[in-house]
Structures are given as C-alpha cells and as structure tokens.
Amino acid sequence: MSIIQPNSLLTVPTGSLQILELPAATTEANSEPIVLSLVIPTYKEAANIQKIVSILTNLLDEYIPGKYELIVVDDDSPDGTWNIAQSLMTEYPQLRVMRRQGERGLSSAVIRGWQAATGNILGVIDADLQHPPHVLLQLLQAIEEGADLAVASRHIEGGGVSSWSFVRRLLSRGAQLLGLIILPGVLSRVSDPMSGYFMLRRHCIVGKTLNPVGYKILLETIGRGNVGKIAEVGYVFSERKEGESKVTWKQYVDYIHHLIRLRVSTGRLSKFSRNFPIDRFLRFGLVGLSGVFVDMTVLYLLSDPTTLGLPLTRSKIIAGEVAILNNFLWNDIWTFADVSSQQQEWRQRLKRFLKFNIICLAGLVLNVLVLNLVFNFVIRNRYVANLIAIAVATVWNFWVNLKLSWRVTQVK
Ligand code: GDD
Ligand code: MN
C-alpha cells in the first residue's frame, strides 16, 4: 500500500467517463467503509467553500459519522478554491479535494469526482448554498428506503424557487417542455429534470460510459443508467449570496445539444437519426435564430411609425429577404464552411443562394401548413403549435439545404 501524504490532493482520473464497480476490499483496516460519497463541484467558490464544507460535515457527522466523504472537484479556479479546500482537510477529515487542470465543465467534474469515490451511494450538491443542505438527509433516507435515485425537486410539494424573474421561470419551463418533446422517456420520470442536487446507488451507473455536455448531469444519469425507483424531495432553490452563477447562453445551447445526443444514442435508432449531423444542425439552428433578430430589426427600421413608416407587407418582404441573406451568409461561411470552401466561385455561391431562397420559401409554406394541422387536430394552443411548426420547418430547411444547396452527401 502506498503511503498517502496528509492533505494530498486526489489524483484526477483520466480516460473515459466511466464509473467502476468498487473492488471487493476497499476498506482499510483503520477506517469505516464509506456509505455516501458526495461531490461538490466548484468553480470560483472561494467565498462559499468553507461554509458548505462545515455545514455538510455537521449534518453528516450526526447521521453517519465517519461513513461519508465530501469530494470537492475544483477546475483550477483562479480564486484558489482548491487551495482553500485543501487547507480545510486537517479540520475536516472526511474531506477530499481534486484539482483539475486539463478538463473543465460541471458535468465532467461530477463524474470525475464519482470515479474517485469509494462509497456505494454517489451524490452531488452545489457549493454555493443554493441547495439547502438539510435536504441531503431526506435524500439519503429515500435511498435507504429503497429508491435507486433521489432527486431534490423544485416542482413538487415543498419545492420552489425563491425570487426568480418571470423570464428565468419561463426559460426553465420552456427548456423542460422541449425536453419532454425530444426525450420523453427521461424527462417524464422526474418533476425537476434540471436539478443538480441528487444521489443514486452506484450500481445504477456502473460500467456505463457517461458523456454529458453542459450542466445537466441528472439527464445523463437517468438516460444512460439503469435506474429503477426514483424518489423526489421538495426543496426551495435559494438565492446565491456569495460569488456568481456560471450559467450563460452557452448552457442553453449545450442543453439542447445534450437532449438530442441522448435521444439519438439511447432511443430506438432509425437510420435517419443515426446519420443526422447534429452539430451541423445546431449551427444551422443558431443561424436561424440570428435571422429572427435581423428580420425584427429590419422590420422595425422600415415600418415603425417612428422610423420610415413604410407599409407593413412591403417592409416584411424586405425584412424576410434580408434575414434570408443573413442566414445564407452565415451558413455558407460557418455551418457548411467545409463544403463552400471547395466551391468558392461567385457563380457557385449565387447558385447556392438561389436554392437556399427557394427552399426557405417552401419551408415557410410547410410552416403555415403544420401550424394549422397541429392547431386544429392536435393541440389547441397557438404558441405550442407554432413551436412545433417552426421545429418541423427548421428540420426541413436544414435537411433539404444539406442535400441540395450544400450537398453533403456521404459517399460510402
Ligand atoms: N468543477 C466545476 N467546473 N464546477 C462548476 C463549473 C465548472 O465548469 N461550473 C459551475 N460549477 C459549480 C459551481 O461552482 C457551483 O457549485 C455549481 O457548479 C452550480 O453552478 P452555478 O453556476 O451556481 O449554477 P446555477 O446556480 O445557475 O444552477 C444550479 O442549479 C440548477 C437548478 O437546480 C446547478 O446546480 C444546476 O445543475 C441546477 O440545474
Ligand atoms: Mn448556483
């Protein structure tokens, strides 16, 4: 046995993100077997780390003294969070600290922590005290009573968010709705699939290679793991007092990317979905979104009474065409850069632009058709129907442009 230096950092596991079975005898002679391994992912949490470690230690020392470990996984925070955590190890003997320097990101941090864990129950909690620590014991109880996985949820009895703006609530619910459409088998199993506060039995994910993008590690765990009974415990997501959230627009894009990837790799595979170029599609979707802004801006500049005040229809046609031009240019230099760099002549470019125009026009017709069909026969809510229509038209626009305008045909 190697001698472990006091207060040394955990070695960062490398290779694939896979959780292994515990070796039969991990128990060292002088230590209790670990029941719960709780990962605390951190990035720039210098102001919170001591407090969270102290509160969790007090709680768990009461309940399972010596039988738990707290694993801080810090991504080499510039504020030295890992360093502070390391200095706490003498005072808190159940604390372990990992400092990652190559890899980054919340989800992979959690998995790396689990890989280093020695407990049979694996959990995760935020470091910023937005996840109320006492809920931890309820989660643990739920597992002891037979659940495979226990989630702290904002959307059941006893749960909530403290003071979120209307927009943030809407975005959060919108994301959930989208998830239900793309990945119902996973999203419908929990009321709060976005929760980053949960624990599960190790055996549920042993041997599975996890491959999450972004923040939503719970989705990945339920999606790829072998999870039976799920329990939920209500909690109120409190406000952050120290430090700041790392959530940016990128997390929303990552989330959608993640949903689609899970869908494709875990759902029943059709030939279509297996060959579907997801990354390219996401770029195409983003470009489409930029087109919406261009369209809106031009419409405003041309038709608003305070600006040019031109007639609405005329303004809209121009706005639509400018947006199409915008989208074409971005798609040509970004989404399909590899293809267009092979055909740079201006005549070739013009030809692509014309095709793109016609396909988008057909897409608009499809959009209107689907909107009517869905609204009249499926769901009597014009906004949901419109969302579905836009999704269908986007896939159409993408697929046909892929095959016709930029012609990315796989040659076997
Ligand atoms: N190691 C590491 N690397 N940790 C990170 C990273 C990273 O790149 N990004 C964020 N963290 C840590 C933060 O330090 C914090 O402890 C935790 O992950 C959550 O990050 P926040 O930036 O505070 O996220 P949030 O408050 O907006 O969202 C949280 O609540 C959501 C709703 O329940 C997260 O827990 C989400 O997972 C959760 O869905
Ligand atoms: Mn937070």
From TrEMBL:
Outline the extent of the Glycosyltransferase 2-like domain.
37-197
Q: Which SUPFAM superfamilies match?
A: Nucleotide-diphospho-sugar transferases
Q: Coiled-coil segments, which residues?
A: none
Keyword Membrane, does the record have it? Answer: yes
Q: Per UniProt, what is the membrane topology? A: Multi-pass membrane protein
Membrane spanning residue stretches? 281-302, 358-377, 383-402
User: Is the keyword DNA damage in the record?
Assistant: no
Where does the GtrA/DPMS transmembrane domain lie? 283-405
- What Gene3D superfamilies does the record point to? Spore Coat Polysaccharide Biosynthesis Protein SpsA, Chain A
- Keywords carried by this UniProt record: Glycosyltransferase, Membrane, Transferase, Transmembrane, Transmembrane helix
Q: Name one Pfam family in it.
A: Glycos_transf_2
Where is it localised?
A: Membrane
The entry's family comment says: Belongs to the glycosyltransferase 2 family.
Q: Under which name does UniProt file this protein?
A: Glycosyltransferase family 2 protein
What is the organism of origin for this protein? Answer: Brasilonema bromeliae SPC951
